[in-house]
Task: structure prediction
Amino acid sequence: MTKLSVNINKLATLRNARGKNNPNIINWASKIESFGAHGITVHPRPDERHIRKTDVFDLKTAVSTELNIEGYPSPDFLDLIKKIRPDQCTLVPDPPEVLTSNAGWQVKTSKETIKNSAKFIKDLGVRLSLFVEPKTCDTEDLEYLKYSGVDRIEMYTEDFAQKNSVVSEYKKLASIAISAGLNLNAGHDLNLKNLSQFITTIPEVKEVSIGHALICEALEFGMEDTIKAYLKILNDCKSQTDTFKQNQHTKLNQKEEEIRS
Result:
């Protein structure tokens, strides 16, 4: 089953609007885990406009599932990863001033940055994921990422969310990545309406990281019910995939029996 990691940046944005500690994101991280989420994701930025460094240290102690830290591999960010040593580090190419992650890495023009950052992070024993651009990422790029020590790619899914017709591009990228020995994550603009189609099409996805949409949906349905709705989608997708595989296995066995007879 694909795992759900909840990005809690938006909770920190709400807290920071009043300058106090409401909502308490550490308590909420624990609640989100208790509702069944498989992990917590944060993206600390240099201006600390949502997640702060102190939050990251507190979350390292509080999170009992999996902690995923996203960010651009600046010296300060890499130093934070060294101190925290999260379960997973996801490198994104966005500079500090952008509103949110809005593109994947252009691997060919960022090889040295990726290679040097990957070595640093892998030497810490941290699983490494790289945010990639499905429209431009090719076999050569993926083989280079595997050579550099990257464990997973996170497919940037905004294009899919905006126009579902491009899902074939993601399926093609997923196939190439798996052939190159890379595992798959996905994130950006996935929500309760489009997640099922994406995971049914690409069941090999290990983890989805969802924040903005999930927090917005929680305003309508409540946090616990929203998370359980996501988990039901992911579980249903797994059941569909398992049923399909079983049917294919049965058909293959029947064909072999026909040949033998």
Q: What stands out?
A: The first strand starts at residue 3 and ends at 7.
